[in-house]
Specification:
Layout: E1 5-11, E2 13-14, E3 20-25, E4 28-32, E5 48-51, H1 54-57, E6 63-67, H2 73-76, H3 79-85, E7 90-92, H4 94-106, E8 113-115, E9 121-124, E10 127-133, E11 142-148, E12 151-155, H5 173-182, E13 186-190, H6 207-216, E14 221-224, H7 230-242, E15 246-249, H8 252-264, E16 274-275, H9 277-281, E17 288-292, H10 302-307, E18 321-324, H11 333-345, E19 349-352, H12 366-376, E20 380-384, E21 386-387, H13 388-400, E22 416-420, E23 423-427, E24 434-438, E25 441-442, H14 447-459, E26 461-468, E27 475-484, H15 493-508, H16 518-536, E28 542-549
Parallel strand pairs: 2-21, 4-6, 6-7, 7-8, 12-13, 13-20, 14-17, 14-18, 15-16, 15-17, 18-19, 26-28
Antiparallel strand pairs: 1-3, 1-22, 3-4, 5-24, 9-10, 10-11, 11-12, 22-23, 24-25, 26-27
Helix pairs in contact: 4-8, 5-12, 6-7, 15-16
């Protein structure tokens, strides 16, 4: 039998986040990453978005393992929801392993969780998987070489080629080159920064800028960054020690990750440098650094509460300096702007991207993406991790590097690339999409519910209650109209009285036997109220008719 190798993205292609890529051979599959996407502004009330597992659910037993390239939420955040249903082993590097273990514990799950390091190789079904060290904005990030019966697939994970990283461990270019020499069947490469020319700056380039900023600061320095960015945290700790400041850590996620980083040996903390918040309050402001979560304006984060003057232990004072050391994730512009505005109102000097120069990206720019292509020299190329425009640009970049356009495959979620001895081709797409997590509900909120929520937020609700005789169709009482988020009822009674008349006129035109059918009465009430409100107020509230049969 001519077995086929299949590359099946269930998330992360055509969007930022939700990363989950299946590599299949025969009846076996391994998933690379299992991430979430944070809700867009139009996803009212949604907490998280996770990949749709319909394809795997319809093929029980196919998924053999999940391999995590690193510990960012868009690569591991969906694991508790997936392994609850599909309890396959999850493989993760030490820092990601610690983060995932904590997630599983929070969800009260006990699932197989294996630890590996860069340089390790192991087998899962028909696949041999090798982890290759790469640099990113989180420690313990890896690319993967997946050897299959038809050839080797290289998945870069999120990466950049930082030649002077803080931990002294640059990306393993030699290993990628060796894989290229041996032959790479397909390269799946990070596309996030494909629009940026040149090379992404090194993390080390920020140290002098941080130190200069700390020395200029007249009061406390508050640094907000991602809790998973241990290298950035280490820079803040080092510069604080150099400039004579003590560090207080704020935010549950930041406290947790600093503890994990210390336990694993990734953070070097001089004795006495970190103090609790109560002790920091007793120190002179020019001797204090606050390290916080909330760089994306998250409403419940430590920074947001401080900005709103709602933090129990910390208040921003004139003369304080706030550094927001992270990129703005698309969709978070408004919330970040609100936090910055509130901090400025309280007298803080706020330094934020793209103006402050106190953040560098964790993703490869064009020259590094070209170098990855040169090192691996793949037969086929698939851009991953990016919006559609990023994927298109990356295919163009690969073509500029000499790959035949026919060998560059622009896939989106659900698209399938099949490879066999005859070559590579697109196959029929599979089920994919987004599943919404709302509180404890997973998948019970769909597009119809979101549409209703948007409709309610746009036009409000009008509840119309009518009582009819179930035998004769005679209207006994009503309609009574109650509104929420539509108009202020005390000031709009004239509209409501006319609306009631419109309903009664519409019902009077119905035959008596039709008025004994609740469904017909409801629809006539709905149409009459829609027409009236659209004509008089040019508004479109959700109309909810209720018919009581007496």
């Amino acid at each position: 039998m001519n077995e086929v190798l299949r590359i099946v993205p269930l998330g992360g292609l055509g969007e930022i986040g939700l990363n989950m890529m299946l590599i299949e051979y025969g009846d076996s599959a391994v998933a690379i990453d299992c991430g979430v996407m944070f809700p867009e502004p139009s996803m009212l009330g949604i907490d998280l978005v996770i990949p749709d597992l319909t394809y795997l659910r319809e093929r029980p037993g196919r998924l053999q393992a999940i391999v995590c390239t690193h510990g960012h939420e868009d690569h591991v955040g969906a694991l508790p929801f997936v392994v609850r249903e599909m309890p396959v082993p999850t493989y993760a590097t030490p820092f990601a392993h610690a983060l995932v273990a904590h997630k599983l514990e929070e969800h009260e799950l006990v699932r197989p969780l294996e630890r590996f390091r860069a340089g390790d190789s192991w087998r899962v079904g028909p696949f041999e998987i090798e982890a290759i060290h790469i640099t990113h904005s989180i420690v313990d990030a890896v690319g993967l070489a997946i050897r299959t019966p038809l050839g080797t697939i290289v998945h870069t994970g999120d990466f950049k080629f930082d030649q002077t990283p803080l931990d002294g461990l640059p990306s393993d270019l030699r290993r990628f080159a060796a894989l290229g020499d041996a032959g790479v069947l397909a390269l799946l490469s990070d596309s996030t920064n494909v629009d940026r020319p040149g090379v992404t700056p090194s993390e080390r380039s920020l140290t002098a800028r941080f130190e200069a900023t700390f020395r200029r600061a007249r009061g406390r320095v508050l640094v907000a960054t991602f809790a998973s960015h241990l290298h950035r945290i280490q820079q803040v700790l080092d510069v604080s020690a150099t400039t004579g400041r003590r560090v207080a850590v704020l935010g549950r996620g930041m406290v947790q990750n600093v503890e994990i980083g210390r336990d694993l040996g990734y953070l070097r903390v001089p004795p006495g440098l970190i103090v609790d918040v109560a002790e920091a309050r007793g120190l002179p402001p020019e001797r204090v650094t606050l390290l916080s979560t909330g760089s994306q304006g998250e409403p419940l984060s430590a920074l947001a509460r401080i900005a709103m003057d709602d933090h129990k232990q910390v208040r921003v004072e004139p003369g304080d300096t706030v550094i927001m050391s992270s990129r703005i994730i698309p969709g978070n512009e408004k919330s970040i702007g609100d936090v910055i505005n509130h901090l400025c109102r309280r007298g803080a000097d706020v330094l934020h991207e793209p103006y402050a120069g106190l953040h560098v990206s964790g993703h490869a720019s064009q020259s590094e993406l070209q170098l990855m292509l040169q090192l691996t020299r793949p037969r086929y190329f698939v851009p991953v991790h990016g919006e559609y425009r990023h994927l298109v640009r990356h295919c163009g970049l690969a073509a500029d590097m000499g790959l035949a356009p026919a060998d560059c495959f622009l896939l989106e979620d659900g698209d399938v690339l099949e490879i066999d001895a005859a070559g590579a081709r697109r196959a029929e797409s599979v089920a994919s999409g987004r599943v919404f997590v709302d509180g404890k509900g997973v998948g019970d909120v769909g597009d119809v519910v979101l549409r209703d929520r948007r409709h309610l937020s746009d036009g409000g609700l009008v509840l119309a209650i009518l009582a009819v005789n179930q035998h004769t169709g005679e209207i006994i009482s009503g309609p009574d109209l109650i509104s929420r988020g539509f108009v202020f009822e005390d000031e709009s009674q004239v509209y409501f009285e006319h609306a009631k008349e419109a309903v009664l006129e519409a019902l009077a035109a119905l035959a008596p036997e039709s008025r004994t059918a609740p469904a017909e009465v409801k629809e006539e009430m709905r149409k009459a109220l829609r027409r009236y409100f659209r004509k008089t107020l040019e508004r479109r509230p959700v109309i909810l008719p209720v018919v009581m049969e007496l």
